[in-house]
Amino acid sequence: MRLAHPHRLNSHPDRMKARLSVGFLLLPNFTLCAFANFIDVLRLAADEGDRSRQINCRWAVLGQTLEPVRSSCGITIQPTVRYSDPEDYDYLVVVGGLVGGLSRRNPEMDNYLKAAARRGVPLVGLCTGSLALHRAGLMEGYQCCVSWYHHDDFLAGYEGLTPVTDRIFVVDRDRLTCSGGASSAHLAAFLVERHLGRAPATKSLHIMMISEAAMGNTPQPASAMDVRSKDPMIRKSLQLMQDNLDVPLSINDIAKRIATNRKTLERHFQAELATTPQAAYLDLRLDHALYLLKGTSRSVASIAAECGFCDSSHLSRLLKRKTGITPIALRERLTMEAARTLP
Fold first, then answer.
1. Which of 14, 110, 123, 255 is least buried, going by the fewest C-beta atoms within 10 A?
2. Which domains does the chain have, with CATH numbers?
3. What is residue 58's three-state secondary structure?
4. What would the pLDDT profile of 105-140 be if each residue is shown by its tens digit?
5. Going by DSSP bridges, is the β-strand pair 81-82/91-95 parallel, antiparallel, or unpaired?
6. How far is CA 337 from CA 6, 297, 330, 341, in A?
7. HEC assignment per residue over 88-146
């Protein structure tokens, strides 16, 4: 990982005091959540309390022009400065979002990022921003973190990409990529800790109601099952299941939504995954419940409701059948393991 050079930090008048400076480049239909989470960690680490002055951290939204960029939710963000010397920044962060934001090439942005790479400026891709870096030829030989949500039939269009879909972010030398969403805050905190120390990073996350920093090897909150199959019918089915965990669809409804019938769908699941659609759906729901049980302090009842189970007893019974342990016993074991790691 390339660290900021002190002489460069002082070479630009706007960066006299900043120990971490970040430039953002927004793709059309970028995800506002990923952008806001990342920049808020910087904002909260930049100053004492919640005063938000750009002292220890500085940031800017860059553009070839100052025309506003529309996010996926319709909110627009206007660049604050035009493209300038890439070395004015310790990191350049490309924020992506909807796949449609990648449909049109942006030669000016690509050329700017290539110039930055030649001069050793680390590049960051949030959400599909990592795919934009790859398309610009800037990810060759690098691992690239991609959200599990972007399936193989989409990634197939990015030849040579080495996707990592089981971690929330990846740091590979001077390329940092992130699956987006809340994990953007964790990647930002990683950079804040690297440049400013642990205390400012922890402070930012706590103010944002994020209990603790997650490392890059933290798994994404999804079952690995949805990235194993190449069968379009199975992938579409699993996507529908993932999108409807709290109120599970019937297998007949799933088959109807993907323009097939139940028997055909069951045959595909058996041939490809050696399981039934019902069993696969239950595994997705139980995997998500396990993720919430391990990573949050929410009640078992609320987790059961989010994962489509009747009540905590229903979840407990099925989880024990799958893993041999109940939710309460699992949490007790995790508490004991955490206590043993304390100094």
1. 14
2. 6-207 (3.40.50.880), 224-341 (1.10.10.60)
3. strand
4. 789 999 999 999 999 999 999 988 988 998 899 998
5. unpaired
6. 42, 16, 11, 7
7. HCCEEEEECECHHHHCCCCHHHHHHHHHHHHCCCCEEEECCHHHHHHHCCCCCCCEEEC
